[in-house]
Amino acid sequence: KNLDSSVTLVNTVAAHILSGGGKRVRPLLLLLSARLCGYTGAEHHQLGSIVEFIHTATLLHDDVVDDADLRRGRRTARKVWGNQISILVGDYLYTKAMCKVVEFQSQGINEVLAEACKKMAEGEVLQLYYNGNPSMPEIDYIKIVEHKTAGLIAAACRMGAILAEASEPQQEALFRFGQYLGIAFQVADDTLDYIANGESLGKTIGQDLRQGKATLPLLHLLQQCSEQDRQMIKDRMETRTLSTTDLERILSLMANFGSITYAMDRARAYITAAKDELDCFEDSTARRALSVAADYMITRDR
CB burial class (10 A; 0-12, 13-18, 19+) of residue 2? Predict the structure, then answer.
């Protein structure tokens, strides 16, 4: 409904990815954050769709950057229509979202969303800088996650609070809630890349390693394993090749050194920190729902 492009192909490509499933986490968190702060209107639905447009635009662009063929078990837009169309439709969704958000006439919402978009771009560039590099410090991995994933989630939570005209401390608490939750979400997602069922995940297991991405489980393993195994992993990252035997070896090493446990423990710690940020709010259905949503981030299997 909000797409309404006069170019049919734009609507077709956007509908392809928007109808491909997904958790709709960001709009949900925006709606719940607004309700938590006492909002009783209906404009949070429109604002939630704007955030989802932004997120969808990043997916279209990410699939081009990653040369991805599958997303959520379906062919990516770039695989169906090519890279150029995917990039341009992503650009359209970005600009469409900005056109819609100015209708709220809220400087606060505009600033929060613009800052999130800027950080997502910075995070993508930083990730590309480290692509194929197994020596990335863990602190920079977290920085990438904060920018690429947590930034928009935190913005969604704060935008809900702004819409409800919440106090500055409440806005900041919900921003931090979203930031911690977003980091946990991505750490869990990166861990699922090594342990989930490929069919339920909707992509090939070990895809991050095949793309040269060093995520938290792998960074932990690289700190623990032998020089021989470290060199093997480095070679696979540089050549973007990973055989079944290689993957089985890496999964075995992760099990031996507790790399999966380490990553999930970090994710759980971030969820605990996120839920602590809700302490400044009175008990309510919305607060309990946000707590449940936080737990879901690290218990899902896809």
Answer: middle
b/e sequence 96-131, b meaning 16+ C-beta within 10 Å: bbbeebeebebeebbebbeebbebbebbbebbeebb
Check whether 70 has a pLDDT greater than 90. no
With DSSP H G I counted as helix, E B as strand and the rest as coil, what are the percentages for the chain, rounded to 5? 75, 0, 25
Token reading at 64: 């081009």
Helix (H) or strand (E) holding 123: helix 107-130
Distance of alpha carbon 292 from alpha carbon 26, whole angstroms: 14
Where is 70: in which H helix or E strand? strand 70-71
Q: Left (φ > 0), alpha (ψ -120 to 50) or beta: where does 132 sit?
A: left
* pLDDT at residue 217 tops 60: yes
Amino acid at 147: H
Instruction: State the angle between helix axes of 8-18 and 83-101 in degrees (0 to 180), rounded to the nearest 10.
Output: 90
Topology of domain 8-106+128-296, CATH: Farnesyl Diphosphate Synthase (1.10.600)
Give this prediction's pTM.
0.94
Phi-psi region of 225 (alpha: psi -120 to 50; beta: other; left: phi over 0): beta
CA distance linking residue 33 with residue 235, whole number of Å = 45
